[in-house]
């Protein structure tokens, strides 16, 4: 299963993240999930799509039918418009996110004990803090109460992730 929500939000001149769909046999048990939320900034519309083997789609359609109704017509039309005319919005969003990434990486590089590599895309930045506890939730709580820097704890992204920052540093932390 692949979560491809950020495949269009990549930086440094690329237009699309490398995907695995071209490498997967159509009969394999593989699912690619995507959404309009990230690339087309349609968060909250709950509109997306799956690419999966035909046999799975039939069963999945039954589950969806009994768990949700459908996206309202105006949201479906917004999705069509996004696909047909949304490239400029994606480029603008990508540029904004890349500028934020570049500014944040530059500011973090000035802080002793911080290590981070610029991400290739999306809106997240993972970094290490030398000499800090491996308890990323505790660390994130201390930062938000101490200096007003809101972080998502790395543990929310898996056991290997320690701390992640999804925003800009406040003036007091630079």
Cα-atom radius of gyration: 19 Å
What sort of overall outline do the alpha carbons produce when their principal axes are compared? globular
Mean pLDDT: 82
pLDDT below 50 for ≥5 consecutive residues: which ranges? 163-174
Oligomer: single chain
> What portion of the residues fall into strands of 2 or more residues?
5-15%
What structural class do helix, strand and pairing data support? alpha+beta
The number of helical segments is 4
Order of strands, main sheet, comes to 4-5-7-6
Q: Termini distance?
A: 39 Å
Quick summary:
This protein has 174 residues and is of the alpha+beta class. The chain has helices at 54-67, 73-85, 87-109, 136-147; strands at residues 2-3, 32-35, 48-51, 114-116, 125-129, 152-153, 163-165.
Q: How would you characterize the overall build of this protein?
A:
- This protein is an alpha+beta fold and 174 residues long.
- Helix content is 36%, strand content 13%.
- It contains 4 helices and 7 strands; from the N terminus they run βββαααββαββ.
- It has helices at residues 54-67, 73-85, 87-109, 136-147, and strands spanning 2-3, 32-35, 48-51, 114-116, 125-129, 152-153, 163-165.
- A 4-stranded antiparallel sheet has the order 4-5-7-6.
- The longest helix is centred in the middle third of the chain and has 23 residues, at 87-109.
- It is globular, with a radius of gyration of 19 Å.
- It starts with a strand and ends in a 9-residue tail after the last strand.
- Residues 163-174 have low confidence and may be disordered.
């Amino acid at each position: 299963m692949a979560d491809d929500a950020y495949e269009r939000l990549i930086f440094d001149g690329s237009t699309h993240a490398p995907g695995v769909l071209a490498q997967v046999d159509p009969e394999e048990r593989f699912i690619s999930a995507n959404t309009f939320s990230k690339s087309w900034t349609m968060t909250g519309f709950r509109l997306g799509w799956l690419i999966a083997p035909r046999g799975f789609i039939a069963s999945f359609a039954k589950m969806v039918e009994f768990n949700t109704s459908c996206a309202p017509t105006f949201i479906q039309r917004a999705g069509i418009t996004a696909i047909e005319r949304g490239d400029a919005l994606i480029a603008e969003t990508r540029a904004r996110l890349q500028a934020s990434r570049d500014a944040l990486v530059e500011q973090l590089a000035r802080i002793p004990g911080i290590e981070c590599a610029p991400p290739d895309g999306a809106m997240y930045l993972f970094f290490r803090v030398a000499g800090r506890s491996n308890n990323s939730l505790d660390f994130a709580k201390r930062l938000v109460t101490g200096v007003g820097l809101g972080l998502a704890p790395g543990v929310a992204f898996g056991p290997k992730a320690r701390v992640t920052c999804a925003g800009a540093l406040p003036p007091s932390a630079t």
